User: What shape does this take?
Amino acid sequence: MMSHVGIGYDVHRLKEGRKLVLGGVEIPHVKGLDGHSDADVVLHALCDAIFGALGEQDIGQFFPNTDPRWKDAPSSVFLHEAGKHIKLHEGTLINADITVIAEEPKINPHVKEMKLNIAKSLDINPKRICVKATTNELIGFIGRGEGIAAMAVVSINLPQE
Assistant: This one.
């Protein structure tokens, strides 16, 4: 086996009238993320990291925002599919490290549930998942509360070619 690393990043604007979903958890907040699906930046970044480690294309190639099937879809569907791709490649997810970048709301009270959701979608032990948060120190669009971003790094063991 050989370890492969993938990096993912996603960002969406905050918008009134939308639910805020991060890591598959609905979080009480005055705004939600704007996007074609539920716009869960945590799961989108994680999917891109997985697809990157597998040497595949990005999440938009698998779930294009032009396809009406994905309108308001829960991003857990995307993550479950990314997990299937790991198995198709005969791989094993070693770990995932995810950082949410937001001024508000506070993420820490929801981390445990996010880890459980992610682990369930990928059929792995939650101890292999790290979810943490930071702010943007009031700088830029995130600092002004206009959006939320997430970064993810994964390590996947794959058979040597």
Remarks:
- DSSP finds five helices and seven strands in the chain.
